[in-house]
Amino acid sequence: MKPETSIRPSDSLRNVRYEIRGRLARRAHELERQGYEIVSLNIGNPKAFGFRTPETMRLAMIENLAEAEGYCHQKGIFPAREAVVMQQQARGVTGVTAEEVFIGNGVSELIDLVLRALLNSGDEVLVPSPDYPLWTAAVTLNGGRAVHYPCRPENAFVPDPEEVARLVTPRTRAIVIINPNNPTGAVYPRPVLEALARLAERTGLVVFSDEIYDQMVYDDTEFVPMATLVRDTLCATLSGLSKVYRACGYRVGWAVFSGRTRLAGDYLSALELLSSLRLCSNVLSQWAVQTALGGYQSVKDLVSPGGRLFESRRTILGATDSSRFLQLAPPQGAMYAFVGVDTRELPAFDDQKFALDLLEQKHVLVAPGVSFNVPYRNHFRVTTLPDPATLRVVFGRIEELLQTYANGGSAGEAGAAPSNNVVEATSRFK
After folding, report:
1. pLDDT of residue 410
2. pLDDT tens, position by position, 76-122
3. What mean pLDDT is reported for the chain?
4. Which residue from 340, 394, 326 is spatially nearest to 368, judged by alpha carbons?
5. What is the pTM of this model?
6. Count of domains in the chain?
7. Which of 232, 265, 294 is the last residue of a domain?
8. How far apart are the C-alpha atoms of 239 and 101, rounded to whole Å?
9. Is residue 4 part of a domain?
10. Does residue 425 carry a pLDDT above 60?
11. Which residues touch 143 (CB under 8 Å, ≥6 apart)?
């Protein structure tokens, strides 16, 4: 008999991480199977917190069910692509037609495809730190090297274009801009975006602008579409239905190309080839795109004073402001807060240990900051999707655990079981 040998995974996965759904999330599922109520703040999944996709989008799919039984064009159905073009035109983006729009199974699939069509082994891509970790993972999986440009907490997580420029080398092919940002909620000011656009143009970089949270902005913050600023290089704008339209499970995203598309014919043909290899993206969900983009934008109600997302964000701001231990650059967009812990109060703080203690002892799941490719260990990300009452309970639990640390005790001394108000506040989400 042959000796038993383990099946080894590909070496290409050696430096690939996605801790948002990693070890901590698996432990949370184990605890739930044991009967514990877990408040899961690690993922921005609106449905889990009672948000619904607009009814008009569901009706659009039902009415076109018969049209969704076969494959469609590899770039997507024309009504969906044309709706994306009209949105871009309304925002001041010129020179875009349906031929420059690719529909994918969420932005996640498109991140992989746009990088796979571009990169050769050893090519570099500038990626923000902190980042949405799929960007770093996709660069790595496609043979490239992610070079992280810092978006520092002391600068409200906004990058310094001069610092970014110093990272450009002859191997740099592209720059990734995530705005509004996940995980920090930063919304980049126009002068910063203009400087990054000029940098990309001077150095011939492709701009990948991840704008999935484009309409989730607070307090009169201005969101500036990157495609309105980039003229003399190729710009890809990536967005979709998952967040603004609370339709994560529909898996519909798009990449729309603008700028110097006439010089990118071979690249766009390569991207179409890759799109053809997966035949097409989910056809049924594409029928919701035209209705979503052309209909009433209900997200504006959610991010305005009195709206659910606005009030939840305000609750987090209040909880961090009143904390002895917590620091927060107020998120101006998206559905997250990237919370810092004051290391003057807790010099030995470690984000991964904290996240595990918080889960085991307080039954709250957060994403440690190191998950987002940062060099420091004193941050964690929470989603702002829960209602204010739940968030007040959660931050009370966080404060208890941090106070235990400050007193020199172990997490276990704070008690293993959540109080009744945690169970009551979270049970309606299960």
Report:
1. 55
2. 999 999 999 999 999 999 999 999 999 999 999 999 999 999 999 99
3. 92
4. 340
5. 0.91
6. 2
7. 294
8. 11
9. no
10. no
11. 119, 120, 121, 122, 123
Say whether both 255 and 326 belong to one domain: no
Give the C-alpha distances (Å, rounded to integers) separating 223 from 98, 108, 198, 299, 412.
Answer: 24, 22, 18, 14, 44
Q: How is residue 176 written in tokens?
A: 């990734």
| For residue 420, pLDDT beyond 50 | no
Nearest Cα to Cα of residue 339 among 304, 313, 363 = 313
Calpha distance 415→209 (Å, rounded): 45
Report the CATH number at residue 164: 3.40.640.10
In 3D, which of 46, 11, 208 has the Cα closest to residue 117? 208
What's the rounded Cα separation, in Å, for the pair 327 and 322? 10
The enclosing domain of 419 has a CATH number of 3.90.1150.10
> In terms of domains, do 344 and 289 share one?
no
Q: What pLDDT does 280 receive? A: 95
* 34 and 93 belong to one structural domain: no
Domain boundary among 234, 266, 294: 294
CA distance 280 to 109: 12
Q: What is the rounded distance in angstroms from the CA atom of residue 85 to the CA atom of residue 99?
A: 10
Q: How many CB atoms lie within 10 A of CB 68?
A: 15
Residues 124 and 260 in one domain: yes
Residue 339's SS3 state is strand
| Domain ranges, residue 64 | 55-294
% the chain with pLDDT above 90: 88
Q: Same domain for 289 and 360? A: no
Q: How are beta strands 101-104 and 253-259 bridged, if at all?
A: antiparallel
Cα–Cα separations (whole angstroms), residue 161 to 153, 164, 298, 320, 408: 16, 5, 34, 29, 42
What is the four-CA torsion angle of 54, 59, 60, 66, rounded to 10 degrees?
150
Q: Alpha helix locations (H) across 334-387? A: 351-357
